[in-house]
Design goal:
single chain, about 375 residues, alpha/beta, 7-stranded mixed sheet, 10 helices, 14 strands
Length: about 375
């Protein structure tokens, strides 16, 4: 873990006010997704985690047993998304509904990583699953959601309750300044043009240059051929001839992978919101190495690190992968020494404290832009 005792935007206020949390009407619960983070938050709030048992029966049904009374109290449920996202969602829904039927005053979900957040756009004959997840959570009884670095900021509009989308950028910026030697010789790299705004935001606050990787080595999910790309076999008649004058759509051709910007003799810092399958990051690192970057760092808020990600990172030109502890990844760290963790529990605990005491949340978003 990175030592955060030197300075932080919420550190000073946190130390002064943390003892002001009234625990008499507050219950802190957590599921099985990330008990370590829940314990860190509880210790920072100086309260004990509530007695809640979440287990699975022999037929894989999820059972929830809340041991403490929650009647008339503010319940905070700490649950994040992991590789076992379906169980994570069901545990949260059942815990929220259990609090609702037990007459809890309010039910706040602390979701550092929102499951299914990548499925927030319509893809061919699919569906917007994030909207479904949001509806289920609100119907289960949630009255507020605290999350961090949503895949798309517009996801907040899917919920029928208030959503606080916290940012991990101050922690990652602090890591760059304190833990990357000669970071003034670094350049912030966007892995694709879509993340150029985030990279620009980091570069402006660090007073560094920016580079963008353009082009891809493999087809994107949206370019996969399915039946919708083929015209229907209909008999030619008067009605079908009407569209004969439409201009034909030119097929999109991805250019060969290229780097826009100078990275020769520089430290390349790739920033993104999520690291799941790392092959695209490895391919980007190989290109940056070919262009002369002598050190390559990858920084992201959420580290799912699925499949054989630790092995691919270990064998790649990447020097370090830095992620926060929104998702547990202790096993991956044991498999790859390049993975580093930044603790963000102080930010979540401060958000809980401010919401419980009905204080403004604006301080947690100080100097944070929409592009973060």
């Amino acid at each position: 873990m990175i030592n955060r005792n030197k300075f932080h935007p919420v550190k000073s206020l946190s130390n002064h006010y943390m003892d002001c949390v009234s625990t008499s009407d507050m219950v802190l619960l957590h599921g099985n997704s990330h008990p370590e983070l829940a314990n860190l938050i509880a210790s920072r709030l100086n309260i004990k985690s509530g007695g809640c048992s979440v287990f699975h029966k022999s037929n894989r049904e999820t059972m929830v047993d809340i041991g403490d009374s929650v009647r008339g109290k503010d319940c905070y449920i700490i649950q994040t998304g992991t590789k076992d996202c379906n169980n994570n969602v069901m545990e949260l829904l059942i815990m929220a509904y259990a609090c609702k039927t037990s007459s809890a005053k309010s039910i706040v979900a602390v979701l550092p990583y929102l499951p299914y957040s990548k499925q927030c756009k319509m893809r061919k004959r699919g569906s917007i699953v994030t909207k479904l997840i949001a509806k289920m959570m609100c119907n289960a009884g949630l009255t507020h959601v605290i999350t961090m670095d949503l895949h798309q900021k517009e996801i907040q509009g899917f919920f029928d309750c208030p959503v606080d989308n916290l940012r991990a950028s101050p922690f990652l910026l602090q890591y760059i300044q304190e833990s990357i030697p000669d970071y003034r010789n670094a350049v912030i790299v966007a892995r694709n043009p879509g993340s150029a705004k985030k990279a620009t935001s980091y570069a402006e606050r660090l007073r560094l240059g920016i580079a963008v990787i353009h082009g891809e080595q493999k087809d994107a999910e949206t370019d996969e051929i399915d039946g919708r790309n083929s015209p229907p076999n209909v008999p030619k008649n008067r009605m079908s001839d009407i569209s004969s004058g439409f201009p034909s759509m030119v097929a999109k051709e991805k250019p060969p992978i290229n780097v826009v910007g100078d990275v020769g003799g520089r430290i390349a810092v790739i920033v993104d919101d999520l690291i799941d399958e790392v092959q695209s990051f490895v391919s980007a690192a190989e290109v940056l190495k070919e262009r002369g970057a002598y050190k390559i760092y990858v920084l992201a808020t959420h580290g799912l690190l699925s499949s054989d990600a630790p092995r691919l990172i270990e064998d790649s030109p990447i020097d370090e992968v830095v992620v926060t502890n929104t998702i547990p990844h202790e096993i991956q760290k044991m498999q790859c020494h390049k993975i580093k963790t930044v603790d963000i529990s102080i930010l979540l605990s401060e958000a809980i404290r401010r919401i419980h005491n009905k204080e403004s949340m604006s301080h947690l978003f100080k100097n944070v832009t929409l592009e973060d």
